[in-house]
Specification:
single chain; mainly alpha; 2 domains; globular
């Protein structure tokens, strides 16, 4: 799928640059030659992915090159955004074309190490920590600022840090899905695998709504000519898509996985209780968003982050390979300590 996306993107952007840039409300480059080479590079990566699909056991170098290229894409975009050479409207393309592939590519490259699930869990901790710090830095553009006009002015004047923060949150959203997929894999037991798989699927749907909400926050709230009523409209849309719907779906899947992990003995004690508390806070956040209680939204959101950092760290610790599994990938259903 990554190969098809890259090849199509290379053809469309290389042969039809004007409609491509117009689609994302971006001014085409004055000199089309450099962009033509970028399109060629994108297409070349697509061919690498085709090779990886054909010869997966010999594709480590191809996937590693692809991962680096997909990490450099968002970094380059944010740099160009800071220089005024790109627009926030490219956010959906950056997420769908680059960021969404980070964890699948990393999962493939780590397939031979028993530390794979632990690395995913701890990466998610780092991503959520970075996103939380970013949210503190852009607080003036969030619901904490009750002056809607001042909030809009701050976002327009601080587009760089605003977009970077929500880019971090998109990585965090996808890392949550990766953790839940890895978690469901460890819970694969007779008669229970389908339930764990279903719970992870619910989280995946929640991530789709989260990314949609983050796209609204990046592409719409940053528009300089937006009227105040329109700004309020899009701000509310973000709340409905992300804090309301996404955070309403996450605890549904999360509670099912937590119950399975508790029942199997995989995750009990303080970490297990923290998990249930975290999902409960997500439900409170959803209800608070529905009734527009900003103070409760803020408090529950902060508590969710604190609990998540502890919970995901603990999950990663429990997924560490034991002495008898040092040379192999832990089998689905292996139980960690606790």
């Amino acid at each position: 799928m990554a190969a098809v996306l890259n090849v199509v993107l290379a053809i469309v952007s290389g042969l039809f640059p004007d409609p491509f840039f117009a689609l994302f409300a971006t001014v085409p480059p004055d000199d089309p030659c450099p962009w033509s080479w970028v399109a060629v590079a994108i297409g070349a990566c697509g061919l690498l992915y085709l090779y990886a699909a054909w010869r997966p056991e010999q594709a480590d170098v191809a996937i590693a090159v692809g991962l680096v290229s997909k990490m450099m894409g968002p970094i380059a975009w944010l740099g160009m955004l800071g220089l005024g050479r790109a627009t926030p409207a490219l956010f959906p393309l950056v997420v769908g074309g680059d960021i969404i592939w980070w964890l699948p590519f990393a999962w493939f490259l780590l397939r031979r190490t028993p530390w794979r699930k632990t690395v995913i869990a701890w990466f998610s901790v780092a991503a959520h920590l970075a996103a939380s710090v970013g949210l503190l830095l852009v607080a003036q553009g969030t619901e904490l600022n009750t002056d809607l006009a001042a909030r809009q002015q701050w976002i327009v004047a601080s587009i760089g840090i605003w977009v970077a923060t929500w880019t971090c949150w998109s990585v965090s959203s996808l890392s949550l899905l990766a953790v839940c997929l890895a978690w469901s894999d460890t819970l694969r037991q007779p008669g229970k695998w389908r339930l764990a798989e279903f719970a992870a699927a619910i989280v995946a749907v929640g991530v789709c709504f989260d990314l949609a909400g983050e796209s609204v926050a990046v592409t719409q709230l940053t528009r300089s000519g937006l009227s105040l009523p329109d700004f309020a409209f899009y701000a509310r849309w973000y709340q409905w898509l992300s804090p309301l719907v996404a955070n309403g779906l996450y605890p549904v899947g999360g509670i099912v996985l937590s119950c399975l992990a508790w029942q199997s003995g995989q995750l009990r004690g303080a970490a297990g209780v923290a998990g249930f508390a975290m999902w409960s806070c997500a439900i409170i956040l959803t209800i608070a968003t529905l009734v527009s209680q900003t103070a409760i939204m803020t408090a529950s959101g902060a508590l969710i982050m604190l609990l998540y950092l502890y919970w995901a760290t603990s999950l990663g610790i429990r997924w560490r390979p034991t002495s008898d599994s040092a040379g192999r990938e832990p089998r689905s259903g292996d139980r960690g300590s606790g």
